[in-house]
Specification:
The structure holds two protein chains of two kinds.
Chain A: H1 5-12, H2 18-30, H3 32-49, H4 60-79, H5 83-107, H6 110-120, H7 126-129, H8 132-149, E1 155-156, E2 164-176, E3 182-199, E4 202-208, E5 212-219, E6 224-226, H9 230-233
Antiparallel strand pairs in A: 1-2, 2-3, 3-4, 4-5, 5-6
Helix pairs in contact in A: 1-3, 2-3
Chain B: H1 12-31, H2 34-51, H3 61-83, E1 88-90, H4 121-131, H5 134-145, H6 150-157, H7 161-178
Helix pairs in contact in B: 1-2, 1-3, 2-3, 3-6, 5-7, 6-7
The chains are: A alpha+beta, B mainly alpha.
Chain lengths: ~240, ~180
């Protein structure tokens, strides 16, 4: 009999016919290669099965209830509107969006757009150029960004790092309930993050938590974040 | 006791207490981090509670929930891929040197046993799972951790049994290579 490598996986799971199982058993008795393959596969299966069953995170049920409640209040009023009102509202929104898009397209001249983006995207960041005045301003602005993200002000890293700022950043989700209670959940923290100015008041931030790197844009004027997943977006709310 | 339920017989609280841990664990192994797992598990449970009055009990509630979980997870992966809404990469693959660039996945991935003595072994196994493609990961998680038969996995994932068999076999071969230095 040829090697039985492709049968080892279903053999482990008892998904072979009795005849096939017997054939595999006979073969592995006489074939050290296949026997070793089987042992290795059993070892892999064992390692995965040893992954622990985790219990629910503390506050899971409360947060689930909050989510259900917010979804209900978000959509319920719409469901109860009469059909004619829904149609009218949708049509008016469509018209409004079209008008806005057309107006904006008229206003913008293509050459201006190109020039603007060139002027507002400096090749180097203020810190990389070593401009102390800009550096101070930048640090102040980034402190605001950190405040927005719920953490303390950062300090400058060593000269070698230049563009890297250091400081604890905490990602905290908050869940406001209608009755005034709030729940907070820490979803990660980071000792290291860096930023790059894209436009006035808009920074691209790369933030590393213990396990992940988040890349997002912070608008310091409107205090909003762009480019995060829906979970992390709640940081700013 | 029969696993079938009707909305009138079992309250939402009982339903949640019984099934939420299973849904959370499945989500955790599919996604690899607790925050996203909680978010996914909550979406699944909200969906399930909504559909519970129409659930006829033709399949076991657990299988029904597995199916919802896998579908919500797949939709989310597709959505995020399409929209590019968020970019999250494991730090193991993050160069961290040039912050003007997007994070880059290194071609040469580090050995899983690097620094293992200081690290939780289960984290290494979880990372190995995350290296599998999502279809294979779903099959492995359902088989090894939820102990589903090939037939049940085929039903949950809506794929032929033969595909389950081949994906599982391939995935185990890959994991054998990835986990060779991780002791049991």
């Amino acid at each position: 009999m040829s090697h039985v490598k492709e049968l080892l996986s279903p053999y482990i799971d008892h998904e072979l016919s009795a005849e096939q199982s017997r054939a595999v058993e006979t073969h592995i008795t006489n074939c050290p290669d296949c026997r070793r393959d089987l042992e290795e596969m059993l070892s892999v299966v064992g390692k995965i099965k040893e992954l622990p069953q985790e219990s629910l995170p503390v506050g899971f049920m409360e947060r689930l209830e909050w989510k259900r409640e917010s979804l209900r209040s978000k959509y319920n009023w719409w469901f109860f509107l009469p059909f004619q009102v829904k149609i009218t509202a949708l049509a008016m929104t469509g018209v409004l969006v079209t008008v806005l898009v057309v107006e904006r397209t008229k206003e913008r001249k293509p050459s201006e757009g190109v020039l603007e983006s060139k002027q507002e995207m400096p090749a180097e960041s203020p810190i990389a150029r070593g401009n102390l005045q800009n550096e101070a301003g930048r640090r102040e602005r980034m402190s605001k960004a950190v405040m927005v993200a719920g953490a303390s002000a950062p300090t400058m890293a060593s000269e070698a790092d230049k563009d890297v700022l250091r400081g604890p950043v905490e990602f905290v989700k908050t869940y406001p309930f209608k009755d005034g209670r709030t729940l907070s959940q820490k979803i990660g923290s980071s000792q290291r993050w860096s930023s790059r100015k894209l436009k006035e008041n808009i920074y691209k931030v790369t933030c590393q938590t213990r396990t992940y790197a988040y890349v997002f844009q912070v608008n310091l004027e409107s205090r909003t974040i762009k480019g995060l997943n829906p979970v992390s977006k709640r940081i700013l709310q | 006791m029969s696993e079938s339920v009707s909305h009138s017989q079992v309250s939402e609280t009982d339903f949640l207490q019984k099934h939420a841990p299973m849904v959370y664990n499945l989500a955790l192994r599919l996604l690899g981090n607790p925050t996203d797992a909680e978010d996914l598990a909550q979406d699944v449970l909200i969906k399930a509670l909504k559909a519970l009055p129409d659930f006829r009990g033709e399949a076991a509630p657990s299988s029904w929930l597995y199916r919802i979980t896998v579908n919500v997870w797949k939709n989310r992966v597709r959505y995020e891929k399409r929209r590019g809404l968020w970019k999250m990469v494991s730090l193991e693959f993050f160069t961290g040197e040039n912050h003007d660039e997007e994070p880059v996945i290194k071609k040469e991935e580090p050995a899983l046993d690097a620094g293992l003595e200081a690290e939780d072994k289960s984290a290494a196994v979880q990372r190995a799972l995350m290296r599998l493609d999502k279809e294979s990961r779903a099959v492995v998680v359902l088989r090894e951790l939820q102990e589903k038969s090939y037939q049940e996995i085929a039903q949950i994932l809506d794929i032929p049994e033969g595909t389950v068999k081949s994906r599982l076999s391939r995935a185990r071969e890959s994991l054998k290579e990835i986990l060779k230095d991780v002791p049991r």
